[in-house]
Design goal:
The chain is an alpha+beta fold and 104 residues long. Helices cover 19% and strands 37% of the residues. It is built from two helices and five strands; from the N terminus they run βββαββα. β4 and β5 form a beta hairpin.
């Protein structure tokens, strides 16, 4: 879902980096772009860091839901449903239209 032309925000704040493990236990770094409530869920938006893209990771926006278990532990769950992705991406574009240049 790479509909962003300018993937670098216009602000000069230090990015918040999230490190995740893949199925083989390899670490991958992502920049936390946004978190927002929508349709009863909290969505987290991540993009691969520049280093990850140079290492071959796809340069795309990734959407996760933030889940909390009974013990208060938080986990990110990748959004796979296409209809949900479309709705969340539209909300993200509305929220971040002043920061990123989105393709029409």
């Amino acid at each position: 879902m790479s509909d962003i032309k300018n993937i670098t925000p216009e602000t000069e704040e230090e990015p918040s980096i999230v490190t995740m493990l893949d199925e083989e236990g390899n670490e991958h770094a992502f920049e936390h772009v946004d978190s927002f409530p929508f349709n009863g869920e909290t969505y987290v938006v991540l993009i691969p860091t520049e280093e990850e893209v140079q290492a071959g990771e796809a340069d795309e926006v990734l959407f996760f839901t933030l889940q909390t278990d009974d013990e208060g532990n938080e986990a990110l769950t990748f959004v796979e449903d296409e209809a949900e992705l479309d709705m969340v991406f539209e909300e993200f574009k509305t929220r971040m239209g002043d920061v990123y240049d989105f393709e029409d």
